[in-house]
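One thing: mind reviewing this one?
=====
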Amino acid sequence: MSRLGNHKNKWLFGVIAAVTISTVSLLEGRSNDPYKDIVGVWTVCDGETNVKMRRYTNAECDGMLRTSLVKYGNGILECIAVPVSQNQHAAFTSFAYNVGVPSFCKSSLVKKLNAGDYEGACRGMMAWTYAGGKYVQGLANRREVEVRLCLKGST
């Protein structure tokens, strides 16, 4: 296991995460046309919220996903103080892509992770299955996949 947070080419791990979790991030489904998500935010492709009201090509969606996963993959490394495996990094990147880096970094699961409770951190993602105060089965499904991926890399 490498300490991704100290790697001098952190962007590379974002690319690895993009390849590893592109399937995970697609669990909510791709829409090439903008739509309002469950809380009313205009969204497109695989969860992008910087939306122009037009149809997007699959190539555009793929490019936005790669760019975002590098951004989110690097972002989470700023608040992770312990070594994580590639699977853990990918799972946490997918999670942060969905909830945002600030929410990830402020979460109790990061506190558990940085205290060395890898399993507790992985399982902690299951608490995030609500949107707009309502339970969302699609989020629960996504979290189950993220947790399974995360636990594959537990120490």
In short: The chain has a mean pLDDT of 85. The chain has seven helices and four strands.
